[in-house]
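To whoever is on call:

I kicked off a structure prediction for a single chain this morning and the downstream step that reads the tokens threw a length-mismatch warning. I double-checked the sequence; it's 298 residues and nothing unusual in it as far as I can see. Pasting both halves so you can look.
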Amino acid sequence: MKICSWFVIALTVSILFTGCSSEIHSQSEVPKEPTVAPIVKPNPATNSENSKKSSIASAKKTLTKQSAHKVAKTIPHEPNKKSHKHPKAADKAIAKNTPVQKHIAPPLPEKMPPIMAPKKIGHPLANSTKIIFMLGQDNKGYYLYGEGKITEGTYDKFLRYVAYYKGKGIALNRLMIHSPGGLMNEAIKIGTYMQENKWGSASDQYMKCYSACGIIYASGVFKQIEPGAEIGFHRPYNPSKPDTESFKKHVYKVYKPYWEYIGGSSKLYDEFMHNYDRNQMLILTESNINKYMKVERM
């Protein structure tokens, strides 16, 4: 019995000794902590405050996204208030699903013989048989200058000169013609080019642009005039036919679409169509032209 007690005591002491020795050994083998930069610990109060701010910001962001998503679904795009009150032609066309009307020239009228200024007016080029073009220049820059009768092919010649000077690096946008008149359809084709390409009508003190030439001058999208210049208008006619009432009405109707296309004064149109025949000429100068059209005095 005593032997067993001593054996138990000895075994217990041996176990306790072994445990202490093992603990001392493990502590002696722990490596030294490497040298590292010190870590600054955040202030608990600051950390808590930042955490709150971050949470609030995150919540706002989420709420904003959700709100925007809901608005996008429920609220349609609001149209511009100004355009809603005063819609443009393009807006109207889109609303109606119809194309926008363009500024398109009407078809050429029927061909008629040349119309010229009355001989009693005494135009310096009354006996000319063709037109010539050349480059002109004034204090506004370059322009295309033409003089002579407006005959078949005048429009094509005009285009050749425009292309020629463009090839020389001279971009023209004004036309001045010194002419007693000629073919209305050729004049209308030149006038249509001026409208489509934003050309203006120029003049100098010697220019006398009568009859069919007056239509060309009126076609400029802007117009210039110098003291001494004259622009003449009268009703188109057929030299081989009398000016009957039916013919007058016919001529009035035939050329009206083009006159409206260039934005010509209805007052001027009615004046020369009704009151100035082949033997007369309504002549506009610097002093009276503003009654019928807007011009820049040179």
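Update from on-call: the warning came from a stale cache, not from the record. Cleared it. Sanity check on the structure: The chain has nine helices and eleven strands.
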